[in-house]
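Re-run with default settings, no changes from the original entry. Doing this only to confirm the output is reproducible before filing.
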Amino acid sequence: MDTSSTLKPLEEMGLSKYESKIYLTLISEGISTAKNISDITGIPYGKVYEIINTLSQKGFAMVLPSKPMKYSAVSPQQSIANARKEARKRFEKIESSLLRQLEPIFAKNKNFAGSKSSFLVINGRSNIVRRTEEMIKKAKKNINIQCSANSLSRLIIHKEALKEAADNGVEISIAGITGSENAEEVSSLGFCRLKHIESAKSNLISIDGKESLITSPSPDDDNILYGRDLGISAASSSFTRFIDNFFEINFKKAKEIRYK
């Protein structure tokens, strides 16, 4: 029997080189003794007993009740089925161990994960205004905006794009610092759901749970196009969900505005 083409598959199935040799010997010889197996394979006589016991545990060999003790192979079909069953058990054990160790780490950090995520630093107020306009026009479902008092005043530059989005069924939620200084702008955004917040350390906008933009205005004045603002644009669903969760917490606490 040419064993060269069958040794490797058996080893890939989980048998050692010696186990594979002994199993193939039992297949070709039928019922055999340990001495006979040792003579054929060249495996030390004392080692044969140990290996056959292992083969028996793996479902590849049977120990026959006789004197001297004899052994036979389990049929290839049954042996392969036994190997498949054992492999499944090993996989499930490894799977359970890995999930127990890795899932808590993944759950802790998944808000920042995303294989298709991209982040971009944007410098200058005019560039941030341009990016904000692009995002508003891309929105299909919802737009979330948080901004300071002056940033809320500057938001008027996007009024037409916001109105068009609202007319197309996009839900627009704005959490901003409101007061007498921007009452006119607030009134003109009556088609949005706008609430008052007491403070805003940074401005943000997110659309459809997919894209977000966080900006820090410098200076935070009422100039619409000129400023040394710095922004981080994220095309990342996981990161944007994190931003949306933060926004929703603040929005729930914010005060409803009554439009005049």
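DSSP finds ten helices and eleven strands in the chain. The chain has two domains: 1-112, 116-256.
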